[in-house]
UniProtKB/TrEMBL annotation:
Root EC class: oxidoreductase
One GO term (biological process): aromatic amino acid family biosynthetic process
Assigned EC number: 1.1.1.25
Lineage: Bacteria, Pseudomonadati, Pseudomonadota, Alphaproteobacteria, Hyphomicrobiales
Protein name, as recorded: Shikimate dehydrogenase
Naturally occurring in which organism (per UniProt): Phreatobacter aquaticus
């Protein structure tokens, strides 16, 4: 059985299920996968020090999450056009020469949306957050045929930067910068939270309850917890829901394929993750 050493670099990842996903994906295809959580502040190291440690000590690759998805781009070799456009990376492979990167958040969101809402179009979408995951979702929404994307971020430079990056797609998807999610949501079909608000250890809600009425669907990139305040309120208001677990699942499957060359059946891995979660809950209760 071939050994594959992987890891995740990020700050608030103590409850991340990425180790389970990759370990179980390995079991499904006969690989022995180890997957480490690598938290720079807890290690007393910078992002670059952790990255260099992984590069130099036998890791096949790493996933990169908040707040390092944009930081990591400068550590990569030649960037493929899609990654140049996004300016954010969540999957890095080490080998000969400079590390290579990909963004499976974008492909993962698109696969999750098509799975959760088969045959549906995103329509007009209001999105809170224009950082690394927001960028990936924005490009995915364009690929899915969204007619308009309204960007909302307290950092106006970030919002302007994403709007500029999306400019080549403006013939098919209108781009608007909105002052807040309340105004952005007016007449929208979908609502997206691409901020860390709602995450374990962060809390909060980027989308006011008053913005939910009349909308059709909602997605929260946060998956720990899977049931965020935003999604609970959206479901209560009658919206169709796509949880962050769908993005987590499909971006993980795409990343695993990049790391190993192996294609994993999504529903088989979903079932294994559910069993692992049930086992963990029983263990905690005993």
């Amino acid at each position: 059985m071939r050994d594959v050493r992987l890891g995740l670099i990020g700050d608030k990842i103590a409850r991340s299920r990425s180790p389970d996903l990759h370990r179980l994906a390995g079991q499904l295809c006969g690989l022995n996968v180890t997957y480490d959580r690598l938290i720079p502040p807890e290690r007393g190291q910078s992002f670059d020090q952790v990255f260099d440690h992984c590069r130099d000590t036998g890791y096949r690759g790493v996933n990169v999450t908040y707040p390092y998805k944009e930081t990591v781009v400068r550590r990569l070799g030649t960037l493929p056009p899609a990654l140049q456009q996004l300016g954010a990376c969540n999957t890095v492979v080490f080998g000969e020469g400079l590390p290579t990167g990909a963004n499976t958040d974008s492909t993962g969101f698109a696969r999750g949306f098509r799975t959760r809402f088969p045959g549906a179009q995103p329509g007009i979408v209001a999105m809170a957050g224009t950082g690394g995951v927001g960028k990936a979702i924005a490009f995915a929404l364009a690929s899915l045929g969204a007619s308009e994307l309204r960007l909302c971020d307290p950092d106006s430079d970030k919002a302007q930067g994403l709007a500029q990056a999306l400019k080549p797609l403006s013939d098919t998807m209108r781009i608007v910068i909105a002052p807040d999610m309340q105004s952005a949501s007016e007449g929208a079909d979908g609502l997206v939270n691409a901020t860390p608000l709602g995450m374990d250890g962060v809390g909060g809600n980027a989308v006011p309850t008053s913005a939910l009425a009349g909308r059709h669907w909602a997605f929260d990139a946060v998956y720990t917890p899977e049931e965020t305040a935003f999604l609970i309120e959206a479901r209560a208001s009658g919206l169709a829901i796509m949880s962050g677990f769908e993005l987590f699942l499909f971006q993980g499957i795409d990343a695993f394929a990049i790391f190993t060359g192996e294609q994993i059946d999504a529903e088989a891995l979903r079932a294994e993750l559910a069993r692992a979660a049930d086992t963990a809950e029983l263990s905690q209760a005993s």
